[in-house]
Every structure is written in structure tokens, then in C-alpha cells.
Design goal:
Blueprint lengths: L12 H19 L3 H11 L5 H26 L4 H21 L4 H29 L2 H11 L2 H19 L4 H20 L3 H8 L14 H11 L1 H30 L3 H8 L1 H20 L2 H22 L4 H28 L7 H28 L5 H34 L1
């Protein structure tokens, strides 16, 4: 029996090279995305920014990133994904380097971090388009799981680079070192993807599952989205984004405030999260092999998160290790959900020629929702009558809402997939 030779699960050397280029590019965006959360305890402790100002800066990124996704998704289906990814990574690096030079100004910090959000929105959707255009159906599933490891590992890298910088230099040097790392990655991307357009022309006929890209009108896109339950899905996706990114962002501050661990130790504790979170990508893939419904799989992980949020609420503030365990479990579940909703769901729309548009739309709902809900978190913590437990209750209520809406969407999604394969 003839066995097809593969390269780490991909059908050609070029495909594994292309995947690795996509991986490095998206991985690098997290280095210039989460470094702000690392310096938050320093900013707060030294009175440089208040909780409200920190929430405003971080929310500026989330909201601008989300709004940018609305446009970059459509652009990613029409223009060169190679150029879009390069612009996104390189300008993100330059905005971080700009903060190094203008770190004394709150207005400059707010503006540059918002620009960082806008340009980083140019990266994810074009990468999804590349997955839809250049990889066959078997490879797409592997691509989806593998590319999702960029999130926890990029988080780990951001914390690692930032922590080493903080230990040796003043806080604003963090943005310089992270900016240099991402700028290097953007140059690597341009060098490794020189043959991107040539490959498609030469190999399209060889692909056993060629991409059937057809441009669709907005009214058709909206019709398809309604049929798939996408507009209802915005709510659980926004909550997933909040329980993934907002929770991770506030964790160093939580350890500093409640357990007096100090900035360095708080960041070290936080660095444990992405190591554990890597498991989420593969847990979701394994579970979905049995369930065969990305929405049902997501609902299961929301339910697991709910139990850990309850444990965090009643016992989390009594012990730092228990708090870390609960938050590690919650964020791992959110990474698992992220694979299903943000990576795998858009790939089902490749036959309509709108993978990038759908990916951008779903990612937009995650980050706009996270940005708005993160502002609420900042106001909760600023209120002297409130406490961290108040924030935990807020997160718990969001999780329960997500479970309800995901279950509703799962029924609609099942019908959509049946019609798609009929």
C-alpha cells in the first residue's frame, strides 16, 4: 500500500516552510501585544498611571484591534496577504519603539498603543486566507491546531523578554526590546515568503482539494452568516476573548495586590499560564474529533471554566497557588474555545471565498467585546466598595451567558454543516 510522504504532517517542504513563516509572524505580534500588561504593576505601584488609565490604554488596543479586523478581513480576501502581514508586524514593532521614546506622555502611550492595535489587526485574517488557499482539507485541521500554539507561546515569549528587560533596565526599555524582536520577525516573514504568489500559480492544479474562491456580495455574506448563526456567536466569542486576554492581563496586578509577591514574582507566576495553555489547542482538537461540532465542543469548555470560576470566587484569594491553578484552567479552556471559534469556524467558509472576512469578523467581536468589558473591569477595581471578588462574580456571570448562547448556536451550526456537505 502506497503511503503518502509528508513533512511533519504537511504535504510538501514548501507547505511546512509556509506554515512556519505564518507561525513566526503571528507569534511575534504577541511579543508586542502583552508587554504592556507586564509593566502594569510598575506603572500602578509608582503612580505613573491609575487603574482607569491602564484600563483605557489596554482597551484602546483591544477596541482598535477589533475595529481593524472588520476591515482587514475583507482586505485580506482581496489584497496580498504577504504585504498585509508585513505591514502589521513591522508597524507594530515601530509603535512599540515609539513608546520607548515618548514614555513620559500618557497621551502618546494611549495613541501609540491604539495604533499598535490597528496594525496588528492586519495579520490574523490574511494568515487564515493563506491557510484556505494553500493547504488541503487535511492540512487545514492541523494548521488550525498548530497555529493556535502561537498564542500561549507568544504570551510566554512576551513575558520572558519583558521580565528580563525589567530586571536589568527601566520599564520603558521593555517596549524597545519587544519592538526589536517583532521587527526582526517581520523581516524574516518577507524573506521566507518571496515565492508565495508563484507557489499558488504553479501548484494549484496539483492540490487534490483546490480552493474554490469566488467573490460574494455583502448581502450573500450576511445571508450565509445568518444561516450559520454567526451573529449570535458574537456574544460567546466576545466573552471568550475577555476570559482569555483580560484575565491574563490583570493577573500580575492581582498577585501584586492580593499576595504582595512583587512585580518580578508576579510576572514569573503569570509565565506559568502560557506553558499550560498550549494544552488547550490540542484538547479541543481531540474532543472535537468525538463531538464533531465546534460549538458543542466550545460549550463543554465554557462549562469547565464556570466551575473553576466558582472555585476562584470562594477560595482563590486564600492561596496564591490555588488562584493560579484556577486561572490556568480558565485560560486553557479559553484557548481551546479560541481554536474552535476563531480558527476552525472561519475555514468552513473557504468555498465562499470569504475565509479572511469571516476570520476578521469573528476576531473583531472577540477584541471589541474584550475591550469594552475590560473597561468595566477597570471601573470595578477602581471602586473602593468593590473588590477582586466582585470582578470574579462579573467574569462568572459572563461565562454563564456564554454557555447559554453557545448551546443555541450549536444547534444552528449543526444544521449549517449538514447543508454544506449535502
Amino acid at each position: 500500500m502506497h503511503m503518502e510522504h509528508t513533512y511533519w504532517g504537511y504535504r510538501s517542504k514548501y507547505n511546512i516552510q509556509l506554515f512556519l513563516s505564518c507561525w513566526v509572524a503571528y507569534f511575534s505580534t504577541y511579543i508586542c501585544r502583552l508587554n504592556f500588561s507586564v509593566v502594569m504593576p510598575e506603572l500602578n505601584k509608582n503612580g505613573i498611571l491609575s487603574e482607569t488609565q491602564m484600563a483605557a490604554v489596554s482597551s484602546a488596543f483591544f477596541i482598535c484591534y477589533g475595529i481593524g479586523q472588520l476591515f482587514s478581513g475583507r482586505l485580506g480576501d482581496q489584497y496580498s496577504p504577504r504585504i498585509m502581514v508585513f505591514i502589521g508586524t513591522s508597524v507594530s514593532a515601530l509603535s512599540n519603539i515609539g513608546i520607548f521614546f515618548f514614555h513620559t506622555s500618557y497621551t502618546a502611550l494611549l495613541l501609540l498603543w491604539a495604533i499598535n492595535g490597528i496594525v496588528q489587526s492586519l495579520v490574523w485574517s490574511p494568515i487564515l486566507r493563506i491557510a484556505g488557499d494553500y493547504f488541503d482539507n487535511r492540512e487545514k485541521e492541523k494548521f488550525g491546531s498548530d497555529i493556535s500554539t502561537t498564542v500561549p507561546l507568544g504570551t510566554l515569549a512576551s513575558y520572558g523578554v519583558s521580565l528580563i528587560t525589567l530586571m536589568l533596565l527601566p520599564w520603558h526599555y521593555t517596549f524597545l526590546t519587544c519592538g526589536i524582536c517583532t521587527l526582526t520577525a517581520s523581516l524574516f516573514w518577507m524573506n521566507e515568503t518571496k515565492k508565495l504568489h508563484l507557489y499558488k500559480n504553479e501548484e494549484a492544479d496539483k492540490n487534490q482539494n483546490p480552493s474554490k474562491r469566488t467573490e460574494i456580495l455583502w448581502k450573500d455574506f450576511i445571508k450565509i452568516s445568518f444561516a450559520a448563526g454567526i451573529f449570535i456567536l458574537f456574544i460567546p466569542i466576545a466573552i471568550q476573548g475577555t476570559l482569555k486576554d483580560s484575565v491574563t492581563q490583570w493577573l500580575p496586578t492581582l498577585f501584586e495586590d492580593c499576595f504582595q509577591l512583587g512585580t518580578d514574582n508576579s510576572i514569573l507566576f503569570t509565565m506559568i499560564l502560557p506553558i499550560v495553555n498550549v494544552i488547550g489547542a490540542y484538547l479541543s482538537k481531540a474532543l472535537n474529533k468525538h463531538i464533531r461540532n465546534e460549538l458543542k465542543t466550545s460549550a463543554v469548555f465554557f462549562v469547565i471554566s464556570m466551575f473553576f470560576l466558582i472555585l476562584l470566587l470562594f477560595s482563590g484569594l486564600k492561596n496564591s497557588l490555588l488562584a493560579l491553578l484556577c486561572i490556568a484552567a480558565i485560560t486553557t479552556c479559553m484557548y481551546a474555545i479560541n481554536v474552535m471559534l476563531i480558527t476552525m469556524v472561519p475555514l468552513y467558509f473557504n468555498q465562499y471565498g470569504c475565509v479572511s472576512t469571516m476570520g476578521g469578523l469573528l476576531n473583531a467581536s472577540a477584541y471589541i467585546g474584550c475591550g469594552l468589558l475590560n473597561l468595566a473591569a477597570g471601573k470595578v477595581l477602581k471602586n473602593e466598595a468593590a473588590s477582586w471578588n466582585t470582578l470574579f462574580i462579573f467574569w462568572l456571570l459572563l461565562c454563564i451567558i456564554a454557555i447559554l448562547f453557545t448551546c443555541i448556536c450549536a444547534v444552528i451550526w449543526k444544521k449549517f454543516k449538514i447543508k454544506q456537505t449535502a
